[in-house]
Amino acid sequence: MGIASAALALSATACGKSSTDSGSSPSSSAKATKAAIAYDIGGRGDQSFNDAAYAGLKKAEDELGVKGAEAEPSEGEGDADKVQRLTALARAGNNPVIGVGFAYAPAIEKVAKAYPKTTFGLIDDTSKTGPNIANLVFNEEQGSYLAGVAAAKTSKTGTVGFIGGVEVPLIKKFEAGFAQGVKDTNPKAKVLVQYLTQPPNFDGFSKPDLGKAAAEGQIANGADVIYAAAGLAGSGAIEAAASAGKWAIGVDSDQYNQAGLASYKDHILTSVTKDVSDSVFNVIKSVQDGKPQSGEIRYGLATDGVGLADSNPAYVKMTEVTAAVAKAKQDIIDGKITVKTAP
């Protein structure tokens, strides 16, 4: 999709709410009445990362009276498209403007300089900084470690699987934490690792059929618990696990409670959660309060910024598993366990 088409897509996906082109950005100290999020690959409806960001915007609309706008990505787009999208959102008077995902880093760095009075939220990236950029980041490896403990304790075959959407440093954090949690719990366990695509091909975050095929392959090789950190593609892995009567571990959102995955929920053991929702809400509220966030804002296990969901009643009844997870959580918080951020 070209830049002109991206702008058209923006106007069509802004929640049906009109916005006036003011030609300038509002003051950071002014009450934030308009806030916008630009979605990552897969867009809203991924039952995972993007939907968690939307939940934060919806909460701000409900609790703060904010008028929210949304902008969807286009397949195969480049940085120029993202610059156009973020510029349009800032020019329309939205403050803050939040880029959902590390792919927005170069574009936010550029647009933030052009709109110095607008706060830009950048989720999952600290490489691009600025006085009006809030870097919203998470200790994904910590939550993934807990998933590894749960997987190792639950597995009957001693073989579990990890599926990464795209092989980038962020997703390697999920892999590292998960594998460490598995091995610390059962040194004899086998962890099958597969990435769906390599950059610059980001289909591994958006195509469920890729996740499904990968999970089917791991199941054929003995895996009976599969953890996928793959955005929308992860839903395919969950489908495959459920169809085979195996366990899936969700990611980013509590996927047991996602309506689009209801058919498979009984096989979603747990999910590694990232409080993307609150990170979005908090940066919106900070602007509205006249004290906009900036710099690194980190969400970790100690503050429940990451965690392991317990929505599945079957998981809650696994007392040996939940006890092991609770102990591991406390040991990480107390510094007794240091979780690796790279395999």
Features:
6-stranded mixed sheet; 2 domains; 6-stranded parallel sheet; Rossmann fold; alpha/beta; 343 residues; disordered N terminus
Please describe what this structure looks like:
The chain is α/β, with parallel strands linked by helices. The chain is globular and about 55 Å long. Residues 1-30 have low confidence and may be disordered. It is 40% helix and 19% strand. The strands form two sheets. A six-stranded parallel β-sheet has the order 2-1-3-4-5-11, with helices on both faces. It has a six-stranded mixed β-sheet with strand order 7-6-8-9-10-12, with helices on both faces. The chain folds into two domains: 3-138 and 276-302, Rossmann fold, CATH 3.40.50.2300; 140-274 and 306-333, Rossmann fold. It contains eleven helices and twelve strands.
Task: Summarize it.
The protein has 343 residues and is of the alpha/beta class. It folds into 2 domains: 3-138 and 276-302, 3-Layer(aba) Sandwich (Rossmann fold), CATH 3.40.50.2300; 140-274 and 306-333, Rossmann fold (3-Layer(aba) Sandwich), CATH 3.40.50.
